[in-house]
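Checklist before submission:
- one chain only
- standard amino acids only
- sequence pasted in full

Submission:
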Amino acid sequence: MQLNEIDYNDAMPIDAYGPGFFRVGGKKYEGAVLVSPTGVVAWGGYDDTVNALALSDQIDVLFVGTGAEIAHPDKAFRTRLEEAGIGVEAMASPAACRTYNVLLSEGRRVAVALLPV
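Returned file contents:
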């Protein structure tokens, strides 16, 4: 089997996650985070769309990690982002981390908003 090294260019992959934290680009962040091509910021949950909307010209899809279990994001949250041209895909946070990293390695225009597990 041939293994290939993944090149994320200047973007930061999600290295790890655990109870109440995420490690992104080697740095540990407590609580919910929004990870994008521009960096990592604290995320205030479904009422917090300001930073995600600011990415509308940089991303096509926002993955939403809903914690340990999959859940539906608030309808108003989804509507605000979709009206700005950002697709929203909800999944459990572990799956969102993996999906984000894979698409990031492919050079896709993605970001992820994560609630802790």
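Reviewer check: The beta strands are 14-18, 21-24, 27-30, 33-36, 39-42, 61-66, 87-91, 110-115.
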